[in-house]
Amino acid sequence: MVEKLRTIVISTFLLNTSELWKRLRVRKVGIIGCGAIGTVITKAVERGTVECDELILYDYNMEKAEKLKKSLHFPVTVVKSLEEMIKSRPLVIVEAASQQAVKDYVNKILAENIELIVMSVGALLDLDVKSKKIHVPSRARSHWRFRCHF
User: Fold this and answer.
1) Predicted model pTM
2) What is the rounded average pLDDT of the residues 68-73?
3) How far apart are CA 8 and CA 77, in angstroms?
4) d(C-alpha 59, C-alpha 105), whole Å
5) Phi first, then psi: what are they for 93, rounded to 5°?
């Protein structure tokens, strides 16, 4: 089950974000959420599946973020808030936390002209946000369209 989750997350993440990665030169990436999905993405970075020069981790549970950082052998910074993450100037932030995190953070991230990859796509149904800076993994988007009858 864990291996299947890892495969699904990485494949959907890579399918829709490969063009974005190509445009980014120095790949400083922020990740909101250090649970199952955030961990899978960070491990993909460590293995070189996802190209990145530095990770910035944020989780409301600092212990989770610190534990994940200790498990990695890669440049990682743990921050205490979204504002601190934004000050680090990542070129892209991956939301891997929750629909509520998307609702709380999307406008702040977009206001700073930072690319945002949303894993909890259901939150976008409740928001009136239009931006070319928002990216949605392709399988998640397909599921979202199916559920919404688009």
Assistant:
1) 0.77
2) 96
3) 26
4) 13
5) -120, 130
- Inform me whether the pLDDT recorded for 147 exceeds 50: no
**Which is nearest to 27 in space by CA: 59, 49, 5?**
49
Q: Are 74 and 45 in contact (CB under 8 A)?
A: yes
Burial group, residue 116, by CB count within 10 angstroms (0-12, 13-18, 19+): buried
DSSP string, 62-106: HHHHHHHHHH--S-EEE-SSHHHHHHT--SEEEE-S-HHHHHHHH
Q: Which domains does the chain have, with CATH numbers?
A: 24-148 (3.40.50.720)
**Contacts of residue 106, Cβ cutoff 8 Å, sequence gap at least 6:** 116, 118, 123, 127, 129, 134
